[in-house]
Design goal:
single chain; 112 residues; mainly alpha; 3 helices; 0% strand
Length: 112
Amino acid sequence: MDAYEQVQKGPLKLKGVTELGVTKRKKKKDRDKAKLLETMGKIQKNQEEELRRHLDKLTPAQVAFEKVREKRHMERILKKASKTHKQKVEDFNRHLDTLTERCDIPKVSWTK
């Protein structure tokens, strides 16, 4: 019986747990969201400032080139978005019909 004299009797006691029960810690959602919005605002302001500094260093010709490039990029995006998938497939099939048999690729079907 001497070997069992030091055995703890009763419930186990765990570290970090109060005796009355487990208490939940409050989440810091509001603070995290506020910090995130604040940092996003700062990042956006920094990007705008960098853009202004970058544009100040450019020559007028370079600024005009950047504007035209951005305009063409937007036009390209709008052109690609104007057609539906069905129209794109039909155009592709028409293009394949014009090719010679050496370059023959099986037609793409949009219905099955």
